[in-house]
Design a protein that fits this description.
With 204 residues, this protein is mainly α. It is 43% helix and 7% strand. It is built from 7 helices and 4 strands. The strands form 2 sheets. Strands 1-4 form a two-stranded parallel sheet. A two-stranded antiparallel sheet has the order 2-3.
Length: 204
């Protein structure tokens, strides 16, 4: 698994590069469904306050403030400079995306446990967003209903072929990343894309 390798991307950050996370403690800090939800939200658009994060991901503003401070402690989010009240100061992701370095998990039971926990937290967020979409399906504009898609493929590939496929998909999607895309049409909006590829294991 390569948790968050390309799934968290696009933010109004102060830097223009992705961050490669090499510290297992940072991965463990990320491996919380609420924190993953907050990161996704901040990576999908402009800076937001703790109150806005709470309204988006559920929970209270105080709980979101706590999670934001923890994410800040590990260098994952940052406060936007503002002359207003500190309680209403917006936050943004500290990079345009996050990748987990392969060395974090190699030959490390703690690292592999953190990887699994992070992947599980990501799946919780994917399911939450999909459920929200399906619950609101009838009220979504017809052109967006038509454009939205859920595909499942069963493939027969080698590890080398799967790595090649993953690279091609990543390259294709990177063209549309927020905020690195400079030619954003007026009718564009944030879209959540999930790409997963893993061996189909037999039932135990």
């Amino acid at each position: 698994m390569k948790a968050m390798k390309e799934s968290l991307h696009g933010s109004e950050s102060s830097g223009g590069e992705r961050r490669v996370v090499e510290d297992v403690d940072v991965v463990r800090a990320m491996a919380n469904p609420h924190r993953v939800a907050i990161l996704y939200y901040l990576l999908s658009g402009p800076a937001r306050t703790a109150t806005e994060c709470a309204a988006e991901v559920g929970g209270t503003a105080s709980a979101c403030s706590y999670h934001l401070r923890e994410l800040e402690r590990f260098g994952l989010v940052e406060r936007v400079e503002s002359s207003g009240d500190a309680r209403t100061r917006p936050w943004r992701a500290a990079a345009v995306g996050f990748s987990i370095g392969a060395g974090v998990f190699e030959d490390s039971p703690i690292g592999r446990a953190a990887e699994v926990a992070l992947t599980r937290a990501e799946l919780v967020e994917h399911q939450r967003l999909i459920k929200r979409f399906l619950d609101a399906h009838d009220s979504i504009e017809p052109e967006w209903r038509s454009a939205s898609d859920f595909h499942t493929y069963e493939l027969m590939v080698t590890p080398a072929e799967l790595n090649e496929l993953n690279s091609k998909v990543s390259e294709l999607l990177s063209t549309y990343r927020t905020p690195t895309r400079t030619d954003v049409p007026e009718d564009a909006q944030a879209v959540h894309v999930t790409y997963q590829a893993f061996p189909r294991l037999p039932a135990s």
